[in-house]
C-alpha cells in the first residue's frame, strides 16, 4: 500500500518521532503551521474520520489516550489544538487518519 504514513510507521520513510506505543505513533509535521505541529496517527491504517466504525474505534481511543502524553512531552502546558481534516472539503491530503496537534504559541481564534 502506498500510504506515506504507513511507510513512516514501518520506518521506510524517515520522520522525527516524538511518541510511540503499540497502537499510536506521533511525529513532527513536515510543513509546520505552528511553533509546535505534530501528527498523531493510529498504527492501523484507517483512511479518514469517515472510516471510523465500531470495528476500528479502539485505535481512535488509543490515539486520544496518547494525546495528553504527547502534549506533555512537547511541553504544551498552556494548551493546544487537535484537528483532523476529512475528505475533499476538509482538505485532507494524506489518506491515513491523523490528528494535528498545534501549539507552542497563541493560536488564532478562528478555525476556518
Ligand atoms: P492533511 O492536510 O490533514 O491531510 O495533513 C497532512 C499533513 O501531513 C500535512 O500537514 C503535511 C504532512 N506530511 C505530508 N507528508 C509528510 C511526510 O512525508 N512526513 C511528515 N512528517 N509529514 C508529512
CATH class: Alpha Beta
CATH superfamily: HIT-like
- N-to-C span: 32 Å
Q: What is the second-level CATH architecture?
A: 2-Layer Sandwich
Helix residue percentage: 10-25%
How are helices and strands ordered from N to C? HEEEHEE
Overall residue-averaged pLDDT value: 97
Strand content: 15-25%
Could you give the order of strands across the largest sheet? Answer: 1-2-3-5-4
Q: Any idea of the CATH topology?
A: HIT family, subunit A
Shape: globular
Secondary structure tally, helices: 2
> How is the main sheet built?
5 strands, antiparallel
Look at the helices and sheets and give the structural class.
alpha+beta
The total beta strand count reads: 5
Q: List each distinct ligand once.
A: 2'-deoxyguanosine-5'-monophosphate
Unreliable residue stretches: none
Number of domains: 1
Instruction: State Rg.
Output: 13 Å
